[in-house]
Design a protein that fits this description.
The model has no long low-confidence stretch (mean pLDDT about 85). About 30% of the residues lie in helices and about 35% in strands. The termini are far apart. Strands 1-2-6-5 form a four-stranded antiparallel beta sheet, with no helix packed on it. The protein has a four-stranded antiparallel beta sheet with strand order 4-3-7-8. The protein has helices spanning about 10-40, 50-70, and strands at about 70-75, 85-90, 95-105, 115, 115-120, 125, 135-145, 145-155. The chain has two domains: about 10-40; about 50-155, Immunoglobulins (Immunoglobulin-like, Sandwich), CATH 2.60.40.10. It is α+β, with helices and mostly antiparallel strands and about 160 residues long. The protein contains two helices and eight strands; from the N terminus they run H-H-E-E-E-E-E-E-E-E. Strand 3 and strand 4 (about 115) form a beta hairpin.
């Protein structure tokens, strides 16, 4: 150091400025993150997680019985954003097959869309209207005589 340089002391005001600056940064980051979390929250997966946990094994058993009965489905979007479903059903006497479908926006920002499916070939079904842009969870329920099956897939 030269003789002309002045040595500055670290005072309580310096420490106060450092602490206030630190906490302002922390609070600002927390506020920004809370705002992003609130703005993008799409709702809950299930309304009551305890009840869902009690039903989980039954859901697995239902899915296994559905596969054992011969049900299978492939759900996709075609180029026009219409839902296309390729459905394999149990063997047995020919009977009317009833399909219902509902598309729910994954983040819950859009109202659910009820889809009307019509046959376009052997075991192939297509919706009458396209899905809006975005990601949608499509749930298809099929009823064939006394057998019932449920399928779901996220599309978009």
């Amino acid at each position: 150091m030269t003789e002309n340089s002045v040595k500055r002391q670290f005072t309580g005001w310096h420490m106060t400025a450092i602490l206030v600056s630190f906490f302002l940064v922390v609070i600002t980051v927390n506020m920004v993150m809370a705002r992003f979390a609130i703005a993008t929250f799409g709702g809950t997966v299930v309304d009551n997680s305890y009840v869902a946990s009690q039903e989980f094994n039954r859901w697995l058993d239902d899915a296994a019985a559905q596969r054992k009965a011969g049900w299978a489905a492939t759900i996709s979007l075609d180029q026009d954003r219409r839902v296309a479903t390729l459905l394999t059903r149990p063997k047995g006497p020919e009977a009317t097959l009833s399909l219902t479908a509902v598309a729910t926006h994954v983040l819950g920002r859009e109202a659910p869309v009820t889809l009307v499916l019509f046959p376009v070939g052997k075991d192939m079904w297509r919706s009458t209207k396209p899905l809006p842009k975005g990601r949608w969870e499509v749930r298809v329920e099929a009823v064939h005589t006394d057998s019932r099956a449920r399928f779901q897939k996220v599309l978009g």
